[in-house]
Design goal:
Elements (H helix, E strand, L loop, with lengths): L2 H27 L15 E7 L7 H5 L14 E8 L5 E4 L11 E4 L4 H36 L1
Antiparallel strand pairs: 1-2, 3-4
Helix pairs in contact: 1-3
Amino acid sequence: MNLFGVMDVSGSALAAERLRAEVVASNMANANTTRTPQGGPYRRQEVVFESEASDQGAFSNHLFARGSSDGTANIGGVKIAAVVSDNSPGQRRYDPGNPDADKNGYVTYPDINPLTEMVDLMSATRAYDLNSSAVQATKNMINDSIDILK
């Protein structure tokens, strides 16, 4: 793999982690949404990542790939396989003044734990930062290579 291939992999990871952070932010913003256009409370969303590598094999096969005749290796990157909804039943709270309350005064709220969402957001942020550092290091290596060739 050449240095530009490393940037492609890190770039795809940056885009994936950005989307994951956006989904977590949406979950947190809708933690008290009891009514959606689809009916019922908001459903927590989760992002599912998948490898873009076309030939599934051992990590060592990808790590030591010699590449094709044009000098590139088929390493791939990260892609979003899906954004899936959590199908948990939600949390029922007694709130008879809420317009979405049932005949017994209970309202179904989304099953969103702020602590879980904050951990997911921290994880996405750190992964984004690490990939950003990898892009910066690759950029520095490319610049050093150009300086050597002068």
